[in-house]
Amino acid sequence: KNEVEQSPQNLTAQEGEFITINCSYSVGISALHWLQQHPGGGIVSLFMLSSGKKKHGRLIATINIQEKHSSLHITASHPRDSAVYICAARSNTGNQFYFGTGTSLTVIP
Amino acid sequence: DTGVSQDPRHKITKRGQNVTFRCDPISEHNRLYWYRQTLGQGPEFLTYFQNEAQLEKSRLLSDRFSAERPKGSFSTLEIQRTEQGDSAMYLCASSLNRDHEQFFGPGTRLTVL
User: What is the pLDDT of residues B60-79, one digit of tens each?
Assistant: First the structure.
């Protein structure tokens, strides 16, 4: 069992739809990251959070420490949001990061 | 500063050969991380440096792998006696310190024939 599990693995949405990607983790963490990876490999950090909620433009990330769960929401989705979204948890017993396998999002015009 | 850079971007080698990759982090970033990513999977942590000190190594980092960051700036990752299973994207990231976000380089794609 992976330390970090994401769902769904694949997601197809119509442009404009509200999107939710979920991340559950089984280890104690000091921070959780949401990353975006476009075809070709480039990775961009979207959020780093350890509690509560963060918002950046159309993206919202939340975390529930007690339930060991985080969600990434995209409002008014757009085809340019199509990418793989990866959840990564930083262990609180060291500095190792555990990554989910990613959620591949395709937004159709 | 243009971000984290990695060199080369692509490397094709024959099994048994040694390869070395370089990562140049963002200036003044104290932390530097190495990850490996295979197709369809998320990145896997390999090791990280705080300045020039290598503070943690994953069990994935076998004896054939070695990483250095001699002056606390750029880092190198060397793989000796490459195997086909080493074929992957090798990603480098840097951050100002532990509690700051990581900035990723474009990666080095290694193919071992």
Answer: 788 999 999 998 899 999 99
